[in-house]
Amino acid sequence: MDRDKEIEKLKTKIDSLAEELLTAYEELNLFYDVSRSMGSPLDSEKTMDFILTKAVEMIEADKAAIMVLDESQNKLKIRKGLVGGKWISVDPSHEIHIEGTILSRMIHAERGFIVNDIAEDQNGISPLIATKSLLGVPLYAKKKVIGILTLGDRRDREFTSNDLKLSTVLSSQAALIIENDRLFQENATMAEIGRIMGSTLNIEEVYERFAEEARKLIPFERINVNIFNYREKTAIASYSAGTGAAGRKVGSVFSLAGSAAEEVIRTRKGLLLYPEDKTELEIRFPGLLRSFQAGHRSMMVVPLISKDKVIGNLYFGSTQPGIFTERDLHVAVNIGTQIAGAIANAQLFSERQRLEERLGRAEKMEALGILAGGVAHDLNNVLGVLVGYSELLLMEMPAGDPLREHVSNILQSGKRGAAIIQDLLTLARRGVAISEVVNLNDVISSYFKTPECEKLKAFHPHVTFEIDLDEDLLNVKGSPVHLGKTVMNLASNAAEAISGHGKVTIRTENCYLDKPIAGYDDIQEGDYVVLKVYDNGKGISAKDLGKIFEPFYTKKVMGRSGTGLGLAVVWGTVKDHNGYIDVQSEEGKGSTFTLYFPVTREAMVSDQTVVSPESYRGRGEQILVVDDVKEQRELATTMLSRLGYQVDAVSSGEEAVAHLKVNRVDLLILDMIMDPGIDGLETYQKVLEIHPKQKAIIVSGFSETDRVRRAQNLGAGAYVR
Fold first, then answer.
1. Rounded to an integer, what distance in angstroms lies between the CA atom of residue 339 and that of residue 345?
2. Which of the pair, 630 or 612, is modelled with greater confidence?
3. Tens digits of per-residue pLDDT, 151-201?
4. Could you write out the DSSP letters of every residue in 43-63?
5. Is 645 a residue whose pLDDT tops 90?
6. pLDDT of residue 244
7. Do residues 574 and 582 make contact, with C-beta atoms less than 8 angstroms apart?
8. How far apart are CA 219 and CA 627, in angstroms?
9. CA neighbor of 66 nearest in space, from 188, 150, 140, 192
């Protein structure tokens, strides 16, 4: 009897083991069949179809669905559904809110969950799974629930533990598909972001397109890009987009102190924050209070690293608490790496464009300067004769002569023409003698006492002029005349920019730059005297800003505001003084011209003796005039003869050398440019071979050049224009 019982127990155990073995075999076959169907991420839909078909077939359910959990863990989206042997149409935007429902309990059940009668527990459940019996198995990826596999039956059939085991096998495969799909989508999106970064150097276009792609991977509502300025310890809002409350205004500058950026710079890692109240932010990151007040309860900040330097940060914000995950942070860091490269490339491109614009500007100014210099030479010859003979006529005419006024007008017109020639020579950068120690405060004060300044004020009665001069201003080395013209032109330019009431401010200050500054002009480090001229006028448009220093480029009233050479003269003068210019302007708000002149430590010369006209008179000394222009020779001969000198004149350097081989003279007056034949420098070199100590004066309608200076180094005296 005992033996029969023992045999019966053994038979039962064998049957149980056989059943378990059969179940295991079914699980193995199921795993094999599903695995074989997973060829690639592109086969995911086919594999999901296979999983649900197998589930319905093997477990004998009449409903099956795979649902994906969102980042909040409170909503599900149906990925795939099968009801009564038919695939249902899925709305991608439809979400099932599961908080407090049986589905929520199933998701958080580690090994799945079976309910064989859910008639009283269907709150919030989609009609797809609203059924009598329900089986649910969580989908895990990297130890995290990402969704659920559900099976339902409207009949009286109850699900078993074996059904749960088979569903668990299927759920692991479904989870793998979903995770593979996510990785495939992530890689595809990152590749697209990379393609965007490489397809354009327009950083605004990059921002817009990358934000659109990033939204596919990260559930943010607001995104900001900030670029750091380490020198100023600030950041600038470079881009902001999204829904809800706006972020910082693009272009606004804020301090790095107290911001999450400080932490990102220090750690070079991303930062996840879920602030529940502002207390935490007030202590750690007061700079994020603005985002908290905008309703953000999930915040993510990642560094933008280029060439091993943190150049900025990327901010993601959402009003949903805890929505961002470590996976999102990882993706955001990768996106940050891509966008940092794009920003660096765009900055390099922008810098290259800026340098090319500066080079083009410099080349254009050089070409115009050469043209202006050539014109000035020819006009100076003409005007020199006109002014010279007008002065001679006035010397000969009695005080009451009715023609005296006409000759005087000719003389004044000639002098005005000569002043324009001097502007052209300044533009050509061949007319500024950088020799005197000057204080800009004196130059400015002197200008405001001139008739030109009174005339400017009369033209602009509603414009006030404010002067703010640094009492301890250092000196510069330069030309008082040209610096005075610079002040005059800048003041005139500022007043002309104001229509109606306004103010022009002229300010001086000392400045030490410990690092170069990139602006309209690249300003190198060093000690400078700074001249600033502000106005609150109409400003300069971006398209005009690059042209304002070109000759004759003006929008002023011609005939009232000058020749269109004003700012071109400013440019030439500053460059001749080895200085720099920066221009800041905004339409409708005004402009600021900032000029930087290198400081000199030399002392000013206070005693400047005025020479009496009588001291110019000669006592029969011999002078040789060398000039290729007949009228100039005749004028020089007449004037010097009246002053008591014995004068001879020749028309070329070759004639001068021949003359001096047989004659001696006390002074040689030598034109620098003579065509054809040898010029003034070569003539003087040959003359010195004959008379090694021959005195000479250089006279030219052109401006000072290197050849003039070489002649002076050989012993020539003054240079007269």
1. 10
2. 630
3. 888 777 788 888 888 888 788 878 877 777 776 766 666 666 566 556 655
4. GHHHHHHHHHHHHHHHH--SE
5. yes
6. 62
7. no
8. 84
9. 150
Longest dimension (CA), the chain: 166
Q: Would you say the C-alpha torsion 197, 202, 203, 205 has a positive or negative sign?
A: negative
Q: Inform me whether the pLDDT recorded for 671 exceeds 70.
A: yes
- Contact residues for 546 (Cβ-Cβ < 8 A; gap 6+): 357, 361
Round to whole Å and give the CA distance between 227 and 253: 10
Superfamily, domain 199-351: GAF domain (3.30.450.40)
CB neighbour burial string for 463-487, b if at least 16 within 10 angstroms, e if fewer = bebeeebeeebbbbbbbebbbbbbb
Pairing of strands 96-97, 113-115: unpaired
User: How is residue 412 written in tokens?
Assistant: 């004044």
11-185: CATH class: alpha beta
- Cα–Cα distance for residue pair 340/346, rounded to 1 Å: 10
Cis peptide before 451 (omega within 30 of 0): no
Q: How confident is the model at residue 126 (pLDDT cuts 50, 70, 90)?
A: very low
Task: Say which residue the tokens 């400080």 belong to.
Answer: 262
Collapse the DSSP code of 14 into the 3-class scheme (helix H, G, I; strand E, B; otherwise coil) and give the result: helix
**466 pLDDT exceeds 90?**
yes
CA 645, chain centre distance (Å)? 65
Written as six digits, the tokens of 230 are: 């380490």
Question: Is residue 561 very low, low, confident or very high in pLDDT (cuts 50, 70, 90)?
Answer: very low
Q: Where are the domains of the chain?
A: 11-185, 199-351, 432-600, 613-720
pLDDT score for 21: 45
Task: Give the number of other CB atoms < 10 A from CB of residue 291.
Answer: 24
Most confident of 207-211, 331-335, 469-473, 520-524: 469-473
Beta strands in 204-244, from DSSP E residues, in sequence order: 222-229, 234-242
What is the phi/psi pair of residue 134, to 5°? -140, 135
Q: DSSP per residue over 89-106, as a string? A: P--TT--EE-TTSHHHHH
640 in Cβ contact with 623 (< 8 Å)? yes
For residue 475 the two structure tokens come to 């000196």
Mean pLDDT of all residues in the chain? 78
Q: Which CATH architecture has domain 432-600?
A: 2-Layer Sandwich (3.30)
Residue 503 in tokens: 């103010």
> How many CB atoms are closer than 10 A to CB 640?
20
d(CA 324, CA 299): 8
Query: CA-CA distance, 11 to 5, in Å (whole number)?
Result: 10
Q: Strands 646-650 and 622-626, how do they pair? A: parallel
Tokens of 10: 């053994």
Residues 6 or more apart in contact with residue 458 via CB below 8 angstroms: none
pLDDT at 618 over 80: yes
- What is the model's pLDDT at position 607? 54
Residue 442 has pLDDT above 70, yes or no: yes
Structure tokens that stand for 142 in this block: 């990297």
Alpha helices per DSSP H over 623-664: 630-642, 653-662
User: Does the global pTM surpass 0.70?
Assistant: no
Q: What is the pLDDT of residues 242-295, one digit of tens each?
A: 876 556 777 788 888 877 888 888 888 888 888 887 887 887 888 888 888 888
Look up tokens 């900025």; give the residue. Answer: 312
**Residue owning tokens 């007043």:** 495
Read off φ and ψ for residue 400, nearest 5 degrees.
Answer: -95, 5
Domains 11-185 and 613-720 share a fold: no
Return the CATH architecture of domain 613-720.
Answer: 3-Layer(aba) Sandwich (3.40)
**Average confidence (pLDDT) over 423-432:** 58
- In angstroms, the Cα distances linking 140 to 37, 52, 455 are 20, 17, 85
534/503 Cα distance (integer angstroms): 8
The token pair at 704 is 């000072």
Q: d(Cα 147, Cα 484) in Å, to the nearest integer?
A: 79
CA-CA distance, 433 to 441, in Å (whole number)?
A: 20
Helix axis angle for 566-576 and 480-496, nearest 10°, is 140
